[in-house]
Amino acid sequence: MRLQPLFDVVSEVITAAEAAAVEEVGLEDRLALFDKGVLGRGIKGLKSARLLIGAHHWEHATAVARQLFELLVNIEHLASFDNRETALKQYNRFGLLQWLLAESRRIDFEKERGRHPGTPLESTIKDFLDKGFDEFKLSPRADGTMRWRTSWSGKTTRTLAELSSDTMRIRQYELLFSAWSEQTHATPSVFATNLFDQYEEEVIADAYAKAMDALPDSSRLITEAGFPLINGARRREAETLSMSVTLFVHLWQQLPNVSALNTGDMRSILRRVREFMTRRVHGTAYSILE
Predict the structure, then answer these.
(1) Is residue 232 part of a domain?
(2) Which of 39, 71, 133, 233 fits a disulfide with 197 by CB distance 3.0 to 4.6 angstroms?
(3) Are 193 and 182 in contact (CB under 8 A)?
(4) pTM, rounded to two decimals
(5) Which has the higher per-residue pLDDT, 223 or 95?
């Protein structure tokens, strides 16, 4: 399996993270419980990416990578507050608001389908939304209906990426929310991408052969390091999985109340991912084996 070294790294990270996630924390320690919950969510995301890419469904794994990215930039922003616990209260209140709004929409849907009469839950939700969460309310629409903020911080994902102390965040944002956006939203271009991926190795080999006045032979394309080059859909799989594990490791490092990877292990993991991508996927040039 061409991507096995990358899968090995991901499995090592998941094993270490799961060990940290099962450590006992006090029920009264809200920050620790929150960090543990975030780590658990991240583990599920990384496992999902591994599962999807292992089945060659990289297009669907891009949505998982986006979730990991959004979780990371929000947790980074949370850590930027002088009082993390106060910021966490706002984060959790917005989470409760989102749940109430989702339940309200679900009840409306059920009523429109004739399957859900009015219930005490509906009245309770309406009362909560009418009388609470003023900090997230915006000016009403022209028809008088309430408008709500779309994020706990009042900032877009792009803005959070720009505010991050890591300069790579904005580049990661542009890849996930621009270059790979068509995969997440299943736009018409995904079919063109899949078609090109299918024949990418042949296209590259043919172009190289014409330049060298030789017969095309995609099996002989290698990197300068002497390893077979990973092209086509396999390259997209490698990019998506490497992005997912990198985002997860950075997310884990943002959680001060769970056992973290030591600095040496973290650097080793990121170095192995980077070396694999450089030597086997991106490379700096192509050559032909004699």
Answers:
(1) yes
(2) 233
(3) yes
(4) 0.81
(5) 95
